[in-house]
Design a protein that fits this description.
This protein is about 40% helix and about 20% strand. It is α/β, with parallel strands linked by helices. It has one domain: Spore Coat Polysaccharide Biosynthesis Protein SpsA, Chain A (Alpha-Beta Complex). β2, α1 and β3 form a beta-alpha-beta unit.
Amino acid sequence: MTITSTHPYAVANPTAEDKPPRLFIVLPAYNEGAALSQLTASFGPALPHRSFQILVVDDGSTDDSMSILESARVPHVDIIRHPQNKGLGEAVKTGFLVALERAHANDIIAVMDSDGTHSPYLIERMIQLIQEGNDVVVASRYRYGSQVVGLDWFRTLLSHGSSWVFRITNPIFNIKDYTCGFRLYRASILQKAFQTYGDRFITESGFACMAEIIIKLNKLGALFCEVPMILRYDQKVSTSKIKIARTILRSLNLVRRSATGGYRQQS
């Protein structure tokens, strides 16, 4: 099914607390080609006993990503289309809102990169940690047992530097990786975030949005946990979408705003 997103305001359904949680997997995608169809097909084997739905947010792709995905006919996949590229932040926001329209408060919403560098086989372990009481579980590059394969030394240095900047300026218990795009959220904490911040919950358009989400959820009292991740950058087929200079500047601006109380709740 293909949906054209208009960013409707949405909150999680408060009912059905006694039912097993369902899983909604949000995949922001821009020109990911064959990697996207391969990734979506891998969720079935990775989650054989889990009820899940995949929400691919096509952020204005100009390649054949979506036609490849549609022809693959992978079950449980809905495509939500942005007519034009709006950036990662808007794609994640769209995915959250569509998921929250369908979710109950105790359901789980996952976000992953669409380029095949994140393994779906880590999801079950992350779900267990949500069910144990955490609101957000982050697949971390900085925990014992994690590995990053195929990333050049410069990007590795920037990654570690970014981690330390956020850990010093915005310390959050149990969080070392503020920018990884692989996370699981309890639907109710995202509901609370949209009720609190409204459309200002995610304002960063680029990769800095991932740190913004963590920082704002922390202000709402969310409980966090991390699991070690193996990041297979050597399996990435598409070219990187990160604009390094812009991402650094946006991240520094994010640090400044968070340190000076620049995040306002909606009135």
